[in-house]
Amino acid sequence: MAVVSSMQHSFVCCVLFLFIIISQGSAQLNGYFCDYNKVGNYTANGTYGNNLNTVLWNLTSNKQIDYGFYNSSYGENPDRVNAIGLCRGDVEQNECRSCLLDSRGNLTQRCPNQKEAIIWFDNCMLRYSNHSIFGRMETSPWLHMWNMANATDMEQFNDVLGSLMHNLTERAASGDSRRKYAAGNASAPNFESIYGLVQCTPDLSRQDCSNCLVGAVSEIPSCCNGKRGGRVVTPSCNIRYESYRFYYEPATATATAHAPASSP
Ligand SMILES: *[C@@H]1O[C@H](CO)[C@@H](O)[C@H](O)[C@H]1NC(C)=O
Ligand SMILES: *[C@@H]1O[C@H](CO)[C@@H](O)[C@H](O)[C@H]1NC(C)=O
Ligand SMILES: *[C@@H]1O[C@H](CO)[C@@H](O)[C@H](O)[C@H]1NC(C)=O
Ligand SMILES: *[C@@H]1O[C@H](CO)[C@@H](O)[C@H](O)[C@H]1NC(C)=O
Ligand SMILES: *[C@@H]1O[C@H](CO)[C@@H](O)[C@H](O)[C@H]1NC(C)=O
Ligand SMILES: *[C@@H]1O[C@H](CO)[C@@H](O)[C@H](O)[C@H]1NC(C)=O
Ligand SMILES: *[C@@H]1O[C@H](CO)[C@@H](O)[C@H](O)[C@H]1NC(C)=O
Ligand SMILES: *[C@@H]1O[C@H](CO)[C@@H](O)[C@H](O)[C@H]1NC(C)=O
Ligand SMILES: *[C@@H]1O[C@H](CO)[C@@H](O)[C@H](O)[C@H]1NC(C)=O
After folding, report:
1. How far is the CA of 183 from the centre of ligand 7 (A)?
2. Measured between alpha carbons, how far apart are the two ends of the chain, in Å?
């Protein structure tokens, strides 16, 4: 059982449209926001809507990209649309595209004419905006989710969790422009295990990725203190930990195939 809370900026929380869905399955919708910066709506059949369709079609029809990061822009200002799709680093290509297709369908349905929107599933994130979004760290809107179960020894559990998250953050931030992702596990007291995962959109600089993840990890006490599982999800980065393995172990071949990837 998972619990969710979310917010954009604390001071405008109450006028926002928030739509949250409790997640239990493996590829579930976690939540989404329409028009979270109040940039407004576009008119049906107008230029912006057509550009958005082009961008989302482009992004979800790409069969070359095998590292789970998609970005695309289309159109001229003021109707230029920018979009980013990011799959969890362990999700393989077909599952990734299927998640992005679900994201596109759900966003189109739930944010029918908003210029800006974001959606998170377990396996991917999709967002678009009329603002430039590439290479920018954005930490809002965000979503917190946690497991109801308590860790048995909270203090020691938190120590191990902090150390694990720190190590994963270092590894992910040092990733290349295709992948900034790390996952791993550690032993907590009383034979508990902690499985952690952290990821940035790989268009972020190393420093921005690190800052974003450090910020997300610092939210753990307020979202998930002493809980055996938790997630902090933002547009630029996300973290998750559980007492069970929720990600695929990479085959060694896949890991090395991604390692030498150079900047495009
Ligand atoms: C934008 O569209 C949404 C959904 O159709 C609607 O609820 C909202 O009032 C519209 N906003 C403006 C400023 O027209
Ligand atoms: C948009 O275009 C379609 C087909 O071109 C048309 O059927 C529909 O009525 C139009 N919608 C609006 C709101 O103009
Ligand atoms: C998507 O857009 C990129 C550039 O933005 C372009 O190179 C590519 O050909 C487009 N792909 C499709 C399937 O339209
Ligand atoms: C929304 O996502 C679900 C998966 O959670 C998917 O089954 C459904 O087809 C999606 N809806 C649309 C309109 O794409
Ligand atoms: C995005 O759209 C809003 C509302 O139409 C507009 O005020 C803003 O200038 C646009 N931003 C860009 C970068 O075009
Ligand atoms: C977890 O611990 C908190 C306080 O430490 C307690 O209020 C809560 O009932 C516990 N939850 C469960 C599921 O045991
Ligand atoms: C983090 O890395 C340090 C140094 O490599 C190592 O000693 C420590 O055990 C790691 N922590 C976890 C929880 O894996
Ligand atoms: C990490 O997980 C693997 C398999 O899921 C397990 O074999 C290993 O013992 C775990 N390591 C730690 C330190 O918990
Ligand atoms: C996508 O992001 C990469 C950086 O990861 C950047 O070099 C490229 O220009 C972006 N593509 C578009 C269409 O903006």
Report:
1. 13
2. 41
Q: Is the minimum distance from the CB of 150 to ligand 6 under 6 angstroms?
A: yes
Mean pLDDT score, 185-189:
92
Domain ranges of the chain: 11-134, 144-242
Q: Which ligand is nearest to the CA of 225?
A: 6
| Ligand 8 pocket, CB under 6 A | 185-187, 193, 245
* Confidence at residue 150, expressed as pLDDT on a 0 to 100 scale: 92
Q: What distance in angstroms lies between residue 78's CA and the mean position of ligand 5's atoms?
A: 7
Q: Kindly indicate whether the domain formed by 144-242 is annotated with CATH number 3.30.430.20.
A: yes
Rounded mean pLDDT of 53-62? 96
Instruction: Indicate which atom in ligand 2 lies nearest the CA of residue 45.
Output: 1
Same-fold call for 11-134 versus 144-242: yes
Return the CATH number of the domain spanning residue range 11-134.
3.30.430.20
Q: What is the pLDDT of residues 105-161, one digit of tens each?
A: 999 999 999 999 999 999 999 999 999 999 999 999 999 999 999 999 899 999 999
Q: Tell me the CA–centroid distance for residue 226 and ligand 4, in Å.
A: 33
Is the CB of 164 inside a 6 Å radius of any atom of ligand 7?
yes
